[in-house]
Amino acid sequence: MAVKFYRGRWPAWLPVTVAIRLVGLGLLLWAIASEVTPGLTGHHLVVWILVAAIVPAWLAWTIAQDAARARKIAIFCWIGAAGGVLSIYAPLGLAVVGSAAIGAGSSFEFAVALAISAVGPAALAIATLAAGHPGSRVLGGVAAALAGLVVGAGRRDAAERTKQEMRLAIEHERAELEHARAEVLAERNRLAREIHDVLAHTLGALSVQLEAIDAQLDGGAVSDERLRAGLRQTKSLATDGLAEASRAVRALRDDALPFRAQLEKLCELRGARLAILGDSRELAPETAIALYRVAQESLTNVTKHAPGARVDVRLGYEPAAVSLLVENGVGTGDTGALAATGAGYGLDGIRERVRLLGGSVTAGPRGDGWRVEARLPA
Question: Which of 118, 195, 245, 369 is most buried by a 10 A CB count?
Fold first, then answer.
């Protein structure tokens, strides 16, 4: 009989199983030999032939762990049939019948295992009739087959439960890895968004200041003191940008962001009037950052598109939400090249940021000016 041996790395349990089956085979052969000494005449020769038939099939069962389904069926039928006939001459042949049933019950679904287990008792019944022995021994073969079937089915169920638990554990681990991966990607996006906003607003403010200095130089009527003042303000903007980046990193690490104080400072720097309505309270870091970015982007847009305009900022605390309103009137200065600076994604960026937190942003003209309003749950 051709045998398909186990391929790949052997599982940890395989050597134990192989050892148990080999020891079991040795004990069965020893016990059978003690009952009927094999010989070359009569039933002694029959016992010898039957034992010689059982041994290779038993070894094939032991070492061919991943044999094809049909080959396994043939192996267990072979062992069961030989054990059934052997039971006529040696009662321990019933143990061989039971062992074949155990193997069938462990390897196949119940209906197939039952059919395979019936081969041993059937062979015993045929041999009993042929030899003219009493039929009572057939009942022993049936009992041995049923007992082996029950044991094998129990082992199969236990193995299936173990496999199912392993699959569930693997799926759980895979889900945890996917969740961790999603968190890493979300954190990367969050960091990228913060870095973008800090750089965009800092560089935008520097661009505005440098444009102002350049305009003064082009006019030819700038004193050294005014130039120094402009450079000092430019340096101050760069320093504030670095400080803002540091604050953003602290906020990303869930350190508290002094939102109200930072908003007041921002409005003071941009010449905006701030009004706070309702009872102020501490906000979640991500909510505070989102509102600060809305104010920052709105005030930057005012500087670029409506320089010199009056700007009103209103922060409103409600029982379950917080809102930020930025309104500006008509600008009194020349936008020049400032209106063309930036990538044009500022409003889209703050809309996305606020939407991720379950809020909304509306922006559009109001009279001769512009209005931006953000609302977030808090």
Answer: 118
Residue with structure tokens 């496999």? 163
pLDDT tens digit sequence for 233-273: 676 666 666 666 666 565 555 554 578 888 998 898 888 99
Of 65, 95, 62, residue with least CA distance to 80: 95
Number of neighbours of residue 76 by Cβ within 10 angstroms = 28
Final residue before a domain boundary, out of 175, 191, 218: 175
* Domain span holding position 141: 14-175
Residue 8 structure tokens = 């790949």
* Token pair in block for residue 88: 């006529």
CA distance 75 to 60: 7
Residue 133 in 3-state DSSP? coil
Same domain, 168 and 302: no
Side chain identity, residue 151: V
Q: What is the pTM of this model?
A: 0.44
Residue pLDDT, tens place only, 36-71: 665 555 566 777 788 888 888 888 777 766 667 888
- Decide if 280 is inside a domain: yes
Pull the structure tokens for residue 272. Answer: 């905006």
Where do we find the tokens 């102020």?
280
30, 169: one domain = yes
Burial class (CB in 10 A: 0-12, 13-18, 19+), 57: buried
Bridge-based pairing of strands 273-277 and 311-317 is parallel
Residue that finishes a domain, picked among 175, 205, 236: 175
The tokens for 63 are 């070492």
